[in-house]
Specification:
single chain; 153 residues; mainly alpha; 6 helices; 3 strands
């Protein structure tokens, strides 16, 4: 049996993290000592490592809870169910990467357009580009509100 600090140390996390997982129903101590300390078994330690590995690859607490449910009742689930969860998460990550790549490309274009010199920012190409985009967006919104529906350029 492990006390909370021992298990936390063994898994290189803080005791507060164990309490957090307990609060969210992912982990519970198997028992408590006479003085009220949480006590964990080797099975609890294995469950905690499962949680930490799932968290490390990007699963949310709700998704980890679902994975734990499957882990506890493997006979009533198919590999396809687990693969579906992983493929769904992979799709989310790939979409986020695409979004971040677009952000990076836009920021790189803004940075490339600016001289970065010591002169006043009155004619800064970055600010002008952001103002220009804002004016284009406002013009599109005004056109849409006036009942004109033109395709954006």
């Amino acid at each position: 049996m492990y006390r909370i600090g021992e298990l936390a140390s063994q898994c290189d996390i803080k005791a507060d993290t164990l309490r957090f997982y307990e609060k969210h129903g992912l982990l519970a101590p198997s028992s408590r000592s006479e003085s009220g300390y949480r006590l964990y078994t080797k099975e609890d330690a294995s469950r905690l490592r499962f949680i930490l590995r799932a968290k490390a690859v990007g699963f949310t607490l709700n998704e980890i809870s679902e994975l734990l449910s499957i882990e506890l009742d493997k006979a009533n689930w198919a590999c396809a169910d687990v693969k579906g969860m992983v493929d769904n998460k992979l799709g989310q990550v790939e979409a986020k990467i695409a979004e971040l790549t677009q952000f990076a490309n836009s920021l790189q274009s803004l940075s490339n357009a600016c001289c970065g010199g010591p002169d006043s920012a009155e004619h800064c190409s970055i600010l002008e580009a952001l103002e220009s985009e804002d004016k284009q967006l406002n013009a599109r919104n005004e056109t849409a509100h006036n009942g004109h529906h033109h395709a954006p350029k």
